[in-house]
Specification:
565 residues, mainly beta, 18-stranded antiparallel barrel, two-stranded antiparallel ribbon, 7 helices
């Protein structure tokens, strides 16, 4: 608690008009990003690779997209009204939509169950519900999800924005997700996306509480400071090899500077270490679970009207590798320092990653994007092609085509991801690029290559159809080996120094296909039907299995839960 309270000291005393952030949501984000792609140029209110986004910036982005003439179909016009309703407090009075309230106090606007809008106080309260039933063919059994909760956001005095989400959850997950939880070869006793959990109904399901939230200030006209407990995503693609939202929420303090053609983000996360065993997936040390920190910098620059180039650095550190009780290193809090230089001065004991990302709106309706992550590299060994284990890097390349072939609201996406063995891993107990034993980048860690294709179609305003096909080839371990896929393992236990190749070890070929049909019954109330077919072939019998999953769900103010690995 001492550390968390000390972070508040860094927050500014005086602030300007403030907005909360819209939660991460794949469908929500794509619905906005497609309009920048349609315009064929960069729309400056949003640096789309840095997610989540401020609600005030979303409204400004919509205005820019409207000026660019991108809302051309009936579904587009439905979408712009949806986003305006969802962020109505940032519209001018002439655009706000009111309606006859229910019982005089509820749903005065289409998006809020209850709200208060005064000169010095803005409050929005919404219920959260996720109720679903399904069936898994392996073994033939019922699946379910039962989520109840609430979401609250608002602004105090026009200066302090806040957001809070809490939910109580009981789920029975598909067999392949339970295989991930119970993987005996690497022992991942964690539920994907979640922190502490417990079993219920004779080990037939998982029970967990999820809590996220933040407060934020405008330190100046161009600098935003945010503090809270949440997750983030960096990139324009289906996956992120830099920072994804696969792992659970974490404590953070974040600053964001957006000025001229630049967006600069600096943040520090307090995360949970990697010790195995015990309830909820981790073994407690004195005073609680082991801790580590991740400091992260990311700079984006818009070059011309079509190109955005970004560079990043991240460092994973823990001052006491034997106990897991680490004080926060103040040198890594410097928002403009190069982490590698500081890490060398500290004895090169920490895990530093560097990299870049790019987005090019090549022409109207077409975007190319990519990422490159460098964990370690010696050019001499790379040129020699000798498979040196320390050549650790990851590469992503992708393309998006919206209103494909002239058909309104048909959007196509293709992406390739390649991650070398041992990337993101480290030679210390807490140095891997993980949180709560879950990857901060690709869900499967490293030692893989992958190709993904996505088709999204919105034939009418309320109806969304999404088809995904992902083929991943990765190398697994048999429990006693370390071929570089499990990034939690100490890299010093590697099988060999040279002759390493992608997907080495016990080969596992995974083909994941899904078809999802979603209908919006009312604002943020969705009825959903989904079919998943997953085939997994492996040299290890544990990973050699197939599943067909069908499900129906009702979602209210919550995004779809995705287990796409």
């Amino acid at each position: 608690m001492k550390i968390r309270l000390s972070w508040f000291i860094l927050l500014p005393v005086t602030s300007l008009a403030q907005s909360s952030y819209a939660p991460l949501n794949e469908q929500y984000q794509h619905g906005l990003e497609r309009y920048e792609i349609k315009s064929g140029r960069v729309l400056t209110p949003l640096f789309t690779a840095v997610k989540p986004w401020k609600r005030s910036a979303i409204v400004a982005f919509l205005d820019s997209a409207r000026v660019a003439g991108t809302f051309t179909s009936a579904a587009d016009r439905f979408n712009i009204q949806y986003y305006k309703n969802d962020n109505w407090e940032w519209l001018d009075s002439g655009q706000k939509v009111a309606q006859k309230p229910v019982f005089r106090h509820f749903y005065k606007t289409p998006s809020d169950f209850f709200h208060v809008s005064e000169e010095d106080f803005d409050l929005h309260v919404n219920p959260v519900l996720y109720a679903g039933l399904g069936r898994d063919s392996r073994p033939s059994e019922m699946l379910f999800i039962n989520t109840r909760g609430a979401e609250v956001r608002g602004v105090v005095d026009g200066k302090v924005g806040f957001y809070a989400f809490v939910s109580e959850n009981q789920v029975r997950l598909p067999a392949y997700v339970r295989d991930f939880v119970n993987d005996s070869t690497s022992y991942h006793p964690v539920v994907p996306h979640e922190g502490f959990w417990k079993v219920f109904k004779n080990n037939q399901g998982y029970d967990f509480l999820q809590a996220r939230g933040h407060i934020s200030f405008e330190a100046t006209k161009h600098i935003n400071i945010q503090f809270g407990h949440d997750r983030f995503f960096t990139g324009n693609g289906y996956r992120s090899l830099i920072l994804s939202d696969f792992a659970p929420p974490a404590w953070f303090i974040k600053g964001n500077v957006q000025v001229w053609k630049l967006n600069y983000l600096f943040s520090t996360f307090q995360m949970t270490g990697d010790v195995r065993g015990g309830a909820g997936g981790l073994r407690s040390v004195a005073g609680g679970y082991p801790q580590k920190f991740v400091a992260y910098h990311h700079l984006h620059l818009n070059i011309g009207k079509r190109l955005t180039l970004g560079v990043f650095e991240a460092v994973v550190f823990n001052a006491n590798d034997s106990t897991g009780r680490a004080p926060l290193r103040l040198d890594y809090l410097n928002p403009v320092i190069f982490f590698r230089a500081i890490e060398q001065q500290n004895g090169s004991s920490d895990n530093v990653l560097l990299g870049m990302d790019v987005k090019w709106n090549a022409r109207k309706n077409v975007q190319f994007y990519g990422q490159f992550v460098l964990d370690e590299l010696i050019i001499e060994n790379l040129r020699a092609g000798n498979g040196w284990w320390g050549n650790k890097f990851a590469v992503q390349a992708g393309a998006r085509y919206v209103d494909a072939f002239g058909l309104p609201n048909l959007d196509l996406q293709a992406e390739v991801n390649v991650v070398r063995p041992y990337t993101y891993s480290h030679n210390t107990l807490y140095g891997s690029y993980t949180h709560y034993r879950q990857s901060l980048a690709h869900p499967l860690g490293a030692n893989l290559h992958e190709v993904a294709g996505i088709i999204r179609y919105q034939p009418v305003g309320r109806l969304f159809i999404t088809a995904k096909l992902v083929h991943t080839v990765t190398g697994r371990d048999d429990g006693s080996t370390n071929f570089g896929g499990d990034i939690l393992k100490d890299s010093r236990t590697r099988e060999q120094d040279f002759g390493n190749r992608i997907a080495q070890g016990f080969r596992n070929s995974i083909t994941f296909g899904s078809l999802t049909t979603t209908y919006q019954l009312a604002h943020n109330l969705f009825a959903e039907a989904q079919l998943i077919i997953r085939n997994s072939k492996s040299d290890l019998s544990y990973f050699h299995n197939n599943s067909t999953i069908t499900s129906l769900a009702l979602r209210w103010n919550i995004p779809q839960r995705l287990y796409e690995f």
